[in-house]
Amino acid sequence: MSPTYLGIPLLALALTLPWIFYPSPTARWLNNRLLTLQAWFINRFTQQILMPLNMGGHKWALILTSLMIFLITLNILGLLPYTFTPTTQLSLNLALAFPLWLATVLIGLRNQPTAALGHLLPEGTPTPLIPILVVIETISLLIRPLALGVRLTANLTAGHLLMQLTSTAAFVLLSMMPAVAILTTILLFLLTLLEVAVAMIQAYVFVLLLSLYLQENV
């Protein structure tokens, strides 16, 4: 559950604060190293995501890049001690996934309705299997936002639980078996590095799948 402090839900604070950490670009010809690195990363990521899309899909550049930076920041900040990770809440992830997925579907139905409905029936399907395949493809289409939200929630929650269990084991074993506790602490350090990688990869996968859904419909 989202904890509260002085009546303020920490979910709201956790969603608002990450934007403060990013410096704003200036109007000068030369920026400092941090701004240059930030701009290089954003440009590279935007090129990577938009490469398979046609010009109609390039309108999504701002929202996809912003979502990627937002998710990466929330995921990595959530690995700090005594912090709350909003992206471990299924409700938040579904609130991000469902409207964006629905927008891609509606764009497909508006721009190319025949092609969008044609995805529900693969070409060359035997006639007796047509009703079953239409139902299966419709279910697979409707389950996409749920899969997006559950994937992000499950990966982050599992990583946090592993870190919690490993750190508790290291703390308990410190007085009884110091050698084993040291090995457990090393394992915890490696697990933390893995979780930083997972935090970045899961944010990238979330946005990449959204761009693939968009690619089908533009």
Automatic annotation (TrEMBL):
Its topology with respect to the membrane? Multi-pass membrane protein
Q: Give the top-rank taxon of the lineage listed in the UniProt record for this protein.
A: Eukaryota
Q: What is its main location?
A: mitochondrion
Pfam families per record:
ATP-synt_A (PF00119)
So where does this one cross the membrane? 60-80, 92-109, 129-147, 168-190, 196-214
Q: Which InterPro entries match?
A: ATP_synth_F0_asu, ATP_synth_F0_asu_AS, ATP_synth_F0_asu_bact/mt, F0_ATP_A_sf
Recorded GO MF terms? proton-transporting ATP synthase activity, rotational mechanism
PANTHER family listed in its UniProt record? ATP SYNTHASE SUBUNIT A (PTHR11410:SF0)
Stated family? Belongs to the ATPase A chain family.
Know the name of this protein? ATP synthase subunit a
The record lists the lineage as: Eukaryota, Metazoa, Chordata, Craniata, Vertebrata
Q: Which gene encodes it?
A: ATP6
